[in-house]
Design a protein that fits this description.
Elements: E1 5-6, H1 9-13, E2 22-25, H2 38-44, E3 49-52, H3 64-68, E4 72-77, H4 84-91, E5 96-99, H5 102-114, E6 118-121, E7 135-138, E8 141-147, E9 151-161, E10 167-168, H6 177-182, E11 184-194, E12 214-217
Parallel strand pairs: 1-12, 2-3, 2-9, 3-4, 4-5, 9-11, 11-12
Antiparallel strand pairs: 6-8, 7-8, 9-10
Length: 236
């Protein structure tokens, strides 16, 4: 059985990065972000990137790092709020944006991994989302055709992984990560804990190792809280 573990993020990424590539990056808000792999992409200096991700991190964190270094040419995303740099670059025409309803984005990625070139959905019918896209009537309702998403590279984050590339995600950090692992030519996963072969219960594996090409132990596990709301504690 092949051992897919690499010693560090540089070794796992340096020979697959190139200008103009398309990268899928897991995460939802700041949950499940590939925190250790993104800085290595920045350090590599590759440019003209198309990045597929639910959002582009938060100010000073996550994919924001690649926006700040002007390495991203286009974002294919669902949520672009609360990232001032993203907003500034888009409004100035510096950054291209393909905005998707969140469920449509998830299904486009899943379709890419499943080998389904296109599908129909009611989401977005009659809005700017449907402009320029074919539509069709099914059972009296109009549907818009959406196409799959695939990438040169997927960078994802998991909780546990074994030498064969089997992955387990922790709670909501699963989000887009498993689907992205299936939809890229090369998938690199950073994991918080690397376990021995056979240590993962097969029934608990979320992403089979067949979809994962390389694994590296994460060095950044900040688990930041994107928004913290507090109130005074009530008197006893």
């Amino acid at each position: 059985m092949a051992n897919k573990i690499f010693g560090n993020a540089y070794d796992a990424l340096h020979d697959v990065l190139h200008d103009g590539m398309t990268i899928m990056s897991g995460g939802f808000g700041l949950s499940g972000n590939p925190e250790s792999l993104i800085p290595e992409i920045r350090a590599a200096g590759v440019r003209g990137l198309t990045v597929i991700s639910n959002n582009a991190g938060a100010d000073g964190f996550g994919l924001w790092m690649l926006l700040e270094s002007r390495q991203v040419k286009k974002m294919i995303s669902s949520y672009v709020g609360e990232n001032k740099l993203f907003e500034q670059q888009y409004l100035s025409g510096e950054l291209e944006l393909e905005l998707n309803p969140q469920g449509t984005l998830a299904e486009r990625i899943r379709a890419g991994g499943a080998g389904i070139p296109a599908f129909y959905t009611r989401t977005g019918v009659g809005t700017v989302v449907a402009e320029g896209k074919p539509t069709e009537i099914f059972e009296g309702e109009e549907y818009v055709r959406e196409t799959w998403l695939r990438a040169d590279l997927a960078i994802i984050k998991a909780w546990k992984g074994d030498p064969a590339g089997n992955l387990v995600f922790r709670k909501t950090a699963r989000n887009f990560n498993p689907n992205m692992a299936t939809a890229a030519r090369v998938t690199v996963a950073e994991v918080e804990e690397i376990v021995e072969a056979g240590a993962l219960d097969p029934d608990c594996i979320h992403t089979p190792g067949i979809y994962v090409d390389r694994i590296v132990k994460s060095t950044i596990n900040e688990k930041r809280i994107e928004k913290l709301t507090t109130r005074p504690r009530e008197a006893a």
